Amino acid sequence: MIEQLAKNLVSLKKEFSSKYDGKSQMHEVIPTSTSESFNIEQQDLELLHKFATKNPIYYNSYEQIIGNIKCIVYEGDINKYWLNSIQHSSTHAPFSPTWIMSAYVATLITKELGYSEVIDIGSGDGRIAFCSKILNMEAYSIEIDNQLFDLQKLLVTTLDFHPFCSNAITFNYDSLNLNNPAFFIGGLAQMGGVTLAKGVIEKIKYLDYWKKSGWIFAGTYSQKYASDPKNEAGWGTLIENYQLQKLKTISLPTAWTFHETEETPYVFAEAS
After folding, report:
1. At CB < 8 A and 24+ separation, what contacts does 49-55 make?
2. 64 alpha-carbon distance from chain centroid
3. Which residues contact 26 (CB under 8 A, 6 or more apart)?
4. Mean pLDDT throughout 129-141?
5. Residues in CB range of 266: below 8 A, 6 or more apart
6. pTM strictly above 0.85
7. Terminal-residue alpha carbon distance, the chain
8. What's the CA gap between 52 and 35, in Å, rounded?
9. pLDDT tens-digit readout, 67-86
C-alpha cells in the first residue's frame, strides 16, 4: 500500500512539473483531502498543510487540480537558509529539502518497518521529524545551523519534535534514551552525507540499540555525481563497511529533482 502511495506521489509530481509555469525557486504540492490515490488520514494531511503554511520558506500558495487530485501548490525560496547552512566549518550537507509529502511517505515506511523513534540528522526545517510525530513516533531533529534551528522552533508549536541545535557528529545520543531508532541522514552521499553518516555511526555503534537501529539514506543515480563501486545510489560502500542490511529502496520527489526524470531513491537499511 505504501509503495503504491509513493508511486502515486511520483506520478503527481511528474504531472505537476509538466504544467508548472511559475518562477519560484522551490515548489511542491500536497493533496487537500484523502482519496483513492492518496489514502491518508485527513487529519494527517491537515497537519502537513499547517507545516507548510507556518513555514517561512513558503511565500505563496494556491489551489490547483493536478490530474484528478485537488492540491495546494506551495512556492518557496531556500536561498538564505542554503547560504547560511554552508558557512559552518563542520557542515557536511547544505540544506536542500525533500518534499513534505515525500517526508511523510518515508516516515510512514519507517513506522511500517517497526521503528518507534526517528532521529533526523541534518534536519533542515525539521520536516522528517515533524512527519514522524504525526505518525506517533518519538522524533528528534539535530541541525547545526542556528537559523534553521530557529525556524524549527516556529514549527514545534504545532507538534513538538524535539529540535536540537548541535553538531550531529559530537551530539550525545545517550541523552535521548533510545530503544529502537531509525536515523535519517540528510544529504546525498557525494555531498557530504557519507562523512555525516560515518560520524554518527561511529558515535553509536557500541551502544545497546545499535543492532536494532535503522538507517535511511537519500541517494542519487545522476551522472552529475561520482558513482559508488558498490552502487546503492551512492551508499553501497558505507552499507558494506558497516555491515548494514539493505531492506528496500523507494523513489520520492525532492526539491532538487523537480526538473529531473528520476526521483530521489531513499535507501532503507538496518544494522545486523
Report:
1. 50/158, 51/100, 51/127, 51/130, 51/155, 51/158, 52/100, 54/154, 54/155, 54/157, 54/158, 55/125, 55/151, 55/154, 55/155
2. 24
3. 57, 75, 76, 77, 78, 97, 255
4. 98
5. 106, 216, 217, 218, 219, 249, 250, 251, 252
6. yes
7. 26
8. 20
9. 999 999 999 988 766 545 55
Q: DSSP code of 193? A: H
Residue 114 buriedness (CB in 10 A; 0-12 / 13-18 / 19+)? exposed
How many helices (H) and strands (E) in the chain? 8, 10
Enter the C-alpha cell of residue 5.
Answer: 502511495
Q: What domains sit in the chain, N to C, each tagged with a CATH number?
A: 2-271 (3.40.50.150)
- The residue that leads in pLDDT, 40 or 146, is 40
Q: What is the pLDDT of residues 110-126, one digit of tens each?
A: 999 999 999 999 999 99
pLDDT score of 141: 97
Length of the chain counted residue by residue? 272
